[in-house]
Amino acid sequence: GFLTGEKRKPTAPLAVLSRWLAEDASVKAFFLNHVTDGIRKHYVFMQTTHDIWISVKDTYSETRNDVQICELVKKIQELRQGSMSVSVYFSELRSLYQELDVYDDTYEGLAADVVVRLQKKEDKKRVYQFLMDLNPEFDIVRQNILQKDPLPTL
């Protein structure tokens, strides 16, 4: 009921309101603890679980959202390892790709064998993106990975 808004915030008495706030906070905490940091940061300051749910529905209910796709592609292209550890950089890049996959309907309606080939090609591009933006001290590691057959995936 907290997500859907069926369990509405009471106006009085104070004891009932306090209990509702505590229960809503528990549901909100459960939700926020089960999403990635990249998603969590968009919802952490919303007041109620229902507010979060409305925003999540608005954001993710459409399978195609060109504005969101464009923003994600830009973030991916601009992401560099920089001062991040390799694992943090990898996690950030992978999270962006996972979010992009939610919106991208490129493979919809295609034959399974075509989808497999296209996904393999996309996986290679993602590995190249990851490797290109590692710091220079990983040049030897980058070269070793690029010589592997088959190339690892993200």
Notable characteristics:
single chain; 154 residues; mainly alpha; 0% strand; elongated; UBN2_3 domain-containing protein
Average pLDDT across residues? 87
Helix content: 55-70%
- Please report which band the strand proportion falls in: under 5%, 5-15%, 15-25%, 25-35%, 35-45% or over 45%: under 5%
Number of helices: 7
Major sheet details: none
Order of helices and strands: HHHHHHH
How many structural domains? 2
Distance between the termini: 38 Å
Taking all Cα atoms into account, the compactness measure Rg is 21 Å
Task: Tally the beta strands.
Answer: 0
The unreliable regions are none
**Estimated structural class:** mainly alpha
Q: What general form does the structure show? A: elongated
Protein name: UBN2_3 domain-containing protein
Organism: Cephalotus follicularis
